[in-house]
Design a protein that fits this description.
single chain, alpha/beta, Nitrilase/N-carbamoyl-D-aminoacid amidohydrolase, binds 4-methylsulfanyl-2-ureido-butyric acid, Aliph_Amidase/BUP
Length: 344
């Protein structure tokens, strides 16, 4: 009898086997449930040019919010500094020049239409923006994200802690990265927020390269990390091959998800903003560390996944049961020492 399979038959068999395997619940403990599924979307934003108005950008954000809702999302993650071009690439001398990029109040006038539509649709969201605020008569500026619940309630803010770049221009011929010039270091820590669907933590762009960011949120019970980013394709501070920019982005997300047993929602602002290229690669990563869906363009694009929050809970009861396995007596220098110090 000839039992040779054609390539097509073998492919069909492989596909059916994989489908069956992925439908089998491999989690082996009695607390495992399979019904804590929530639709999370990531809304990647293509380029926003210097001349684009905030009104026009918010129209694009609302359009993606509607798409996400139509596809079953309860939550949407938008990018860092989502309302304007990535202005820290430019040199401005006075607040009068750069305050046009900042928002005052929540929602700011520019954001209000997005807040209204989201509330009408019952969709919660993360939005990155440049925040200007008055504190005891002192003007302060932060690179901030806000978390708004599906009921329209403002759940809280996060102010970016790991600010990359410099205060003064380095004189690169193409562009600068002046986040340290325009923003203060965030002063809110890494808070997490309890919602009816999941406990959510927020961070912004460069924060994703630092494992402490996610561990602090995980210790506070975060089940979902939301993050927006603007990552220039070229690293002007530390030259490196372009492919490493995407690789390190993805590596950071996968490690954060796996080591903290949480879902990661990563939203890029990307493409060529007035000729300055930024990576795409928006993604949703499962607590297993696997990318489950990834944007395929460098333009406005919505990706969505039905996230099983019990998958993370299972991993936190097993491999990463922090209470059972962490050895804090050996971690002290992580918070007492910043740079490397070699024992004599
Ligand atoms: N926005 C942001 O934080 N971007 C940084 C670029 C670092 S290169 C100076 C990032 O980590 O992606």
């Amino acid at each position: 009898m000839d039992i040779t399979l054609s390539y097509k038959d073998a492919s069909i068999f492989y596909f059916m086997l994989m489908n069956w395997l992925s439908s089998v619940d491999w989690r082996q403990d009695e607390e495992t449930q399979m019904d804590r599924r929530v639709g999370f979307a990531v809304a990647q934003l293509g380029p926003v040019h210097l001349q684009d108005t905030k009104t026009a950008v918010v129209v694009r954000l609302i359009d993606m919010l509607r798409q996400a809702h139509a596809r079953g999302a309860r939550w949407v993650t938008f990018p860092e500094l989502a309302l304007t071009t990535f202005f820290p690439r430019y040199i401005y001398e006075t607040p009068e020049e750069y305050d046009i990029f900042f928002e005052e109040g929540l929602p700011s006038p520019a954001m209000r239409p997005l807040f209204e539509v989201a509330k009408d649709l019952g969709v919660g969201f993360y939005l990155g923006y440049a925040e200007k605020t008055e504190d005891n008569g002192v003007t302060r500026r932060f690179n901030t994200s806000v978390l708004v619940g599906p009921d329209g309630a403002i759940l809280g803010k996060y102010r970016k802690i790991h600010l990359p770049g410099t205060v003064d221009p380095i004189g690169d011929l193409e562009f600068e990265h002046l986040e340290k010039r325009y923003f203060e270091v965030g002063d809110l820590g890494f808070p997490t927020f309890t919602t009816p669907d999941a406990r959510i933590g927020m961070c912004i762009c460069n924060d994703r390269r630092w494992p402490e960011t996610f561990r602090v949120m995980a210790l506070r019970g975060a089940e979902v990390f939301m993050l927006g980013y603007n990552t220039p394709t070229r690293n002007i501070h530390h030259p490196e091959p372009a492919h490493l920019r995407e690789f390190h982005h993805r590596l950071s997300l996968e490690a954060a998800a796996y080591q903290n047993a949480a879902w990661v929602m990563a939203a890029a602002k990307c493409g060529s903003e007035d000729g300055f290229a930024m990576i795409g690669g928006s993604a949703i990563v499962a607590p297993t560390g696997e990318v489950v869906v990834r944007a395929s363009t460098e333009d406005d694009e919505v990706i969505i996944y039905d996230c099983d929050l019990d998958l993370g809970a299972y991993i936190r009861r097993s491999v990463f049961d922090f209470a059972r396995h962490r050895r804090i007596e050996h971690y002290g220098i992580i918070t007492s020492q910043t740079g490397m110090e070699i024992d004599p």
